[in-house]
Design goal:
- With about 260 residues, the protein is of the alpha/beta class.
- The chain has one domain (about 1-220): P-loop containing nucleotide triphosphate hydrolases (Rossmann fold), CATH 3.40.50.
- The protein is about 35% helix and about 25% strand.
- The chain has a six-stranded mixed β-sheet with strand order 7-8-9-4-10-11, with helices on both faces. Strands 1, 2, 3, 5 and 6 form a five-stranded antiparallel β-sheet that branches.
- Strand 1 (about 1-10) and strand 2 form a beta hairpin.
- Helix 3 runs antiparallel to helix 4 (about 105-120) and helix 4 (about 105-120) packs antiparallel against helix 5.
- The longest helix is centred in the middle third of the chain and has 18 residues, at about 105-120.
- The radius of gyration is 22 Å and the shape is globular.
- The structure holds adenosine-5'-triphosphate (ATP) and magnesium ion.
- Magnesium ion (MG) binds near residues 40, 81 and 160.
Length: about 260
């Protein structure tokens, strides 16, 4: 669904994305995990043709980006950082304008109202869709951004930190929504700096560190037993004893994570 080869983006001396080989497969719920500044948003922007790569290749749904971005983007729903909206207009009107700017002609126009109702319902904004966006809370704006990503019923959803600003219930609703959409065949790529969020939601994980993709695998294989046991204790003797018991040996070297022996 998404592949990149040696994808690199430099901003002057800063290498925001460095030789990334991303592999998001059809049907994945792929979690891009990384701390602040690790390059998540830059990578997402590159995938959507919003910034140009310094070098490397991008393919989304079998088409090269940015060359074929016009054909690809109508099938992609995206949410990047803080979603923008006209503050004096209602959420519903904002969605309507956004949809009208997209392709589709008369058929899209005819189904617009229904699709907007559906998206507002999906993100839990059905009751406030007519209020001006300036009266929305942060979480409500985030939900509106998510609704904007959904109005075209995309095959691929790209969500940059979708949990930002949501309360625990909002995060739970978001998780259920993403899993539900994925079960209907939508492939999802989302970024997050929260391991727990990715663990609960995703089937595949990529870890970004200072612009590099340092790990990419199925969550199930990452969770599978490694046969290794880490003993982490501030008490050196306890570390010794635990290791001896585990190995069934009388003498054993202390745990490498034991501070007394560092
Ligand atoms: N337009 C830009 N001009 C210069 N540097 C930039 C630009 N955009 C991003 N960067 C730099 O690229 C690096 C990666 O930034 P990016 O926004 O992609 O990180 P992130 O993982 O999304 O972080 P966060 O979790 O805070 O959203 C950072 O060092 C940032 O300063
Ligand atoms: Mg970011």
């Amino acid at each position: 669904m998404i592949t990149t080869r040696a994808l690199t983006k430099r901003y002057g001396a800063v290498c925001a994305v460095q030789s990334v080989d991303l592999d998001v497969r059809e049907g994945d719920r792929y979690g891009l995990l990384g701390p602040n500044g690790s390059g998540k948003t830059t990578l997402v922007r590159l995938l959507l043709g919003l910034v140009f790569a310094t070098s490397g290749e991008i393919e989304v749904m079998g088409q090269r980006i940015p060359r074929h971005v016009r054909e690809v983007l109508p099938q992609v729903g995206a949410l990047i950082e803080e979603p923008a909206a006209y503050p004096h207009l209602s959420g519903r009107v904002n969605l309507s304008l956004l949809d009208a700017a997209g392709p589709g002609g008369r058929a899209a126009r005819r189904s617009r109202r229904k699709r907007i109702d559906e998206a507002l319902e999906q993100v839990g904004l059905a009751g406030v869709g007519r209020r001006p966006v300036k009266a929305y809370s942060l979480g409500m704006r985030q939900r509106l951004g998510l609704a904007a990503a959904l109005i075209r019923r995309p095959r691929l959803l790209i969500l940059d930190e979708p949990g930002n600003g949501l309360d625990p219930r909002g995060i739970r609703d978001l998780r259920e929504l993403i899993i539900g959409l994925n079960e209907t065949g939508v492939t999802v790529l989302l970024s997050s700096h929260l391991l727990a969020e990715v663990e609960q939601l995703c089937t595949r994980v990529g870890v970004l560190d200072a612009g590099r993709l340092v790990l990419q695998d199925d969550l199930a294989s990452l969770r599978a037993p490694t046969g290794r046991i880490l003993v982490d204790t501030p008490d050196a003797d306890q570390g010794w004893r635990a290791r001896r018991r585990l190995r069934g040996r009388r003498r054993a070297a202390p745990s490498p994570r034991c501070p007394a022996h560092r």
